[in-house]
Records
---
Amino acid sequence: MERRQARVDGVGVQYATVGQGPPLLLIHGWINDHTVWRGVWERLAGEYQCLLVDLPGFGASDKPAPDAYPYDVHAFVRAALAVLDAEGIDRAHVGGHSMGGVVALVLAATQPERVERLVLADAAAYPTPFTFKSALAKLPVLGGFIFKYLYRRAAVSDFFCNEAYSGHGTLDAGTVAYLYDLLDPMPARRAAYASLMRTVTPVEAVQPHIPQVQHKTLVLWGGDDRLIPVAYGQRLARDLSHADLKIIEGACHVCIEEFPEIAAGHIREHLAGALGRTVAV
């Protein structure tokens, strides 16, 4: 794996490349980084050049103050395109998880010539019911204080263990600690909160882009997703023009990390051109 940096909007965007073959850009979700795709890229790097981006505000990328950077979906699209441009890639397969799925979707809608095939995993494309903790974080004024100063290790660990992941023992303590350490520094918290309010929450702005996507798309979903229930994946597959839905039973919101072998198999089949019927595994 080679670590590299692109720059866009005055911000350093860290990314890595691994493997050889047709390019496959993978975009992580909220309060995560490129490592969420590890199990997938380890299985696909023999066939594809995997480009693993840390969006601005996350992972190893720069974390400018929210008054200096938009932290909205269009800024994230520009960051993803900057990675392709830095590698001299005109067109790539693009995959996104959760918030990254929204980035991938808008990238395909607004820059269709840059995208070959699309993978949307548990994509946050529609308004969904808020959990109690997420509703607190979105309160005017007070929500920012709660998120930045009161969501400490126990609360964040509870979110990952009991909401984002299935709770079936697939999330080890080391991964939880790693995810908390990514979020804990104040610049990361400010960036994450800005992204929550400017990209994750106002998803209504994304929906006009859905019918614009004409690419062959794999909609990949955890059958037990507690944050964005599978009904939203079924809706997205219906609303897209050329979509195939694959449901991974037993997986929660982070299906690509909980069941990477199954996820990678579906992605491999999709990128090879073998779109079939909806299958629950």
Note: The chain has one domain: 2-129+199-280.
---
Amino acid sequence: MRIAIIGLGLIGGSIGLGLKRCNVEGLTCQVIGISRREETIQAAIDRGAIDEGTTDLKLGVKDADLVFICTPISLIIPTLKTIVPALKQGAIVTDVASTKGLIVAQAEKLTPKGCFFVGGHPMAGKEKVKLEAAEADLFKGATWVLTPTDNTDKNALETVAEYVALLGGKVMKMEPKLHDLVVAGISHMPLAVAAALVNTIAEAKEGQAEMKKTAASGFRDTTRVASGDPILGVDMFTTNKAAVLKMIVAFKASLSNLEKVIKDGNAERIKAELEKAKSLRDSIYG
């Protein structure tokens, strides 16, 4: 099995490290890394994430059986357009983007007959997005959403699912539109809320210096995702605009409700709101 990974950051590097570990455990595959910079390719080879690499997209995927596109969201479709002429018959292409509707629709139109596209999104990551942060166990126990449509080839879907399982991921299948609403709520909105909270402090006219000096674990944990790469956030919000805006409306309504009960000084209703939040969060994380 010849596997190409386009983009050798946190996700692409972790896929490579995971696959190479599987090689040691009995899987036979050759991993080719594709990056814009020779230095990144060499670093990935040195780390044992890939067997070989190239800066040439078409050359890198020419003989690949499976291609992971691990670029920023805005580059996935342009990348697919570039590699399509070089794909061999039977090649399977998947991606790791956190939005799926637009990507899957466009990718299915672009993928030539005899080749296959399967939308994917590993629900794993860190604030650090470069190769240095990659780890073989990044996907262990993590949900990896695959987003098949009526056009998705079943054998290609199962092949991608098998490799997700080899990397330690737990496959969940979901149609693209539902996926985008789900991630708007549990992935994109946390960034929106964290950024808004941090910017509230950044724009505070009074007490800002003291807030920064006294900020402890509560502020740190609530705003952790605000330390991520802003470009990733731009891609999330622009490619999943409708779902994110829908969740922002719902969040503003929830915040307004909390504002009202606090303003009214109604301790029982404040408690009820906090208990409702605690109950749902505890049901997710225990």
Note: The CA atoms of residues 5 and 68 lie 5 Å apart.
